[in-house]
Design brief:
CATH superfamily of the largest domain in chain A: EAL domain
Strand content of chain B: 15-25%
CATH topology of the largest domain in chain A: TIM Barrel
Oligomer: heterodimer
Distance between the termini of chain A: 60 Å
Order of helices and strands of chain A: HEEHHEEHEEHEEEEHEHHHEHEEHEHEEH
Number of helices of chain B: 6
Number of strands of chain A: 17
CATH topology of chain B: Rossmann fold
Order of helices and strands of chain B: EHEHEHEHEHH
CATH class of chain B: Alpha Beta
Largest interface: A-B, 22 and 26 residues
Number of domains of chain B: 1
Number of helices of chain A: 13
CATH architecture of the largest domain in chain A: Alpha-Beta Barrel
Shape of chain B: globular
CATH superfamily of chain B: Response regulator
Helix content of chain A: 25-40%
Largest sheet of chain B: 5 strands, parallel
Number of domains of chain A: 2
Distance between the termini of chain B: 27 Å
Strand order of the largest sheet of chain B: 2-1-3-4-5
CATH architecture of chain B: 3-Layer(aba) Sandwich
Structural class of chain A: alpha/beta
Chain lengths: 419, 132
Amino acid sequence: MTSDVRRVFPSRGSIAAGKLTVFGLETIRERMGTRWDILSAQVDTLFEAAIRRFLQAGDVFFKTGELTFVLLFRDLSLQDAQLTCTAIAKDVCNRLYGEQTLAMAVRNLVGPVDREYLPAYKNIEFGIDEALERGGTETLICADNAPAPVMPPPPTARGRELSFTQLPRTRVPWSEDSLTFGYRPIWDCTLKAVLTYLCQPIPKSHLGVTATPGFCTASEDEERACLDRAVLAHAVKRISQMRVEGARVLLAVPLHFTTLARQRIWADFNKLYATISHDILRDVIFVILDLEGVPNIRLIQELPKLAAARHILCALDHNDRIGERFANTNVHAFGLEFPETGLNDAELNGCIKSLALDAEERGFQSFVLGIQSTSRALNAMAAGVRYLEGPAIHAPVADPRFAFVHGIEDLYAPRAAQG
Amino acid sequence: MTARTVLIADDDKLILSSFRYALAQRGYNVLVAADGIQAMRQLEETHVDIVFLDILMPQKEGLETLLELRRRFPGMPVHVMSGGGTKSKHDFLAVAQKFGATGILRKPITPADLVKIIEALPLASVSDQKIA
């Protein structure tokens, strides 16, 4: 194995373009948040399995550090190496997220390099040396034990010629088949009841993983529209099914603003929307996402398309300036998906207070989703927020069958039971 | 006679400092906490005779703290304070009563209100506290 590695990655001199690819898992870790500690081993396994599927005899891969996989191709051209790496990344993301967007940094060596001049390169060499010293196959794996052919002499270009390229993004449409759904109870703290559930799409590849608060988002407008369509289609089916069974609740459906605003995308979405009876739409609440920077006039133009729905809620970023953006629109409430940022409780409470005050002054209701603690819940209530959702309010449910009464005391039910 | 020890938990620094000053002037030992976590820490480390607990606090609010107090220090006199929030639509104090608060105080509250409650404490209560 040592000789295989050294053929691909000689201990001195430079290596050829396309021989080296680095996968950085930082984005995956960021996206997983607190679940990373639990799932990192699973990610490694997925990655290794994907790499093994695509590597050829004599290729080498290993992991260095917590977040970096390095692939060394024995004899692929740069283009072929890029194609292979794209396939690996897509495979991993598909298994991890149910989507094929490249949620990771994939860097191919584009130009030949003399690694003595590149600190980053030295780290890779260190990783190789370390793995060889350990002498095991746990971290350094050749795709095949067959002896690799002798490499052609490497080019002699200097380190500064090295550049990295980001692979192009790819996308795949969402569909109901690729998603499953959880339901997040939304508490109307004025009525002290849960009448509405927020549909939370979860990629099927996440099954078995506790859903985190946060909308399931996609990166491109068309992807978002696919997701929106899938969620709406599911919600409508669910509402119809519940009615047949004699149950009735309201379902809140996330909808990206671009789905409304881009003519071609809306035309597609409207093929579904237009088929839904107004009677069913009376049980649908749209939660509009991605509104940052959208001016009042655009909201006035676009939101009436959803007039048949019971309500329109607008989800804002906590940094978003609300101003008078919702004046003269058919918006019922605006609010925040609570960010798990570096903000402390006092700062977050400040955000909520200004949100509630702004909403009240303009005659709207306000909501806060993703509330993690009773402290935040009580502060939001005291500030005048009407709709609250999050782990501190009620756990997500698999079956949104009934509306139910939910008082302040119920926020403490598990704790009271423990006491 | 040993001076009684009073713990006041409130995230309003002005209230804390004014109460602390006024009660210390009366000869009480006064401990302060900015949230429920600090309050519980004080209770674990120091003998306390009575607790005044605000409801709206960051990190760990008053109702949650009250439940824990009732579980861990069942005999501790705990008086819960609140203005009910700026909108006053929600009666947090009524919930505090259900959760076993010894008494409730609706803001605004003066130091004299606290003194009246402290003075009414039976002397025996000092030795009644046990950590669960």
